[in-house]
Specification:
The structure is a single chain. 5% of the residues lie in helices and 36% in strands. It has 148 residues and is mainly beta. 20% of the residues are buried.
Length: 148
């Protein structure tokens, strides 16, 4: 499926998002920083990708963390998964949070996050006086799998 992409000047020389393997579900998004950016423990930073996209109608980009950064460095995405809507035309940015104990340095071209192209199902609300019953009912917050 075609995704139109505009490369901004600060992303010149960086590869476009791509799938690392034939079976990969997500494309890697890279840091389009001019100089290294250090994220202190407990701090967060908005990092540029240097890309603007026009997604196909009825689709979103789900922005997800990279497992290696999470395991090795404690790097998380604050709003995970993030959503890039089909009608957004600004630069795609990645908000990283350093939950680790050491400062984390983002270098130009570093793989920051993953983007999954996903279909969007839109719904509408219909107000009712009462919802249909279900086996689970209103049980939540750990209620499944427990016996009375």
């Amino acid at each position: 499926m075609k995704i139109l992409v505009q490369r901004l000047p600060h992303a010149e020389g960086l590869p476009l998002p791509s799938y690392a393997t034939g079976g990969a579900a997500a494309m890697d998004l890279l840091a389009a920083v001019a100089a290294p950016v250090t994220i202190a423990p407990g701090a967060r930073a908005l990092l540029p990708t240097g890309l603007c996209v026009a997604l196909p109608a009825g689709h979103e980009w789900q922005i997800r963390p990279r497992s290696g950064l999470a395991l090795k460095h404690g790097i998380a995405l604050v709003n995970s998964p993030g959503t890039i809507d089909e009608d957004y035309r600004g630069e795609v940015g990645i908000i990283l949070l350093n939950t680790g104990a050491e400062p984390f340095v983002v270098e130009r071209g570093m793989r920051l996050a993953q983007a999954v192209l996903a279909p969007v199902t839109r719904g509408h609300f219909e107000e009712v006086a009462e919802l249909p019953s279900s086996t689970r009912g209103a049980g939540g917050f750990g209620s499944t799998g427990t016996r009375p």
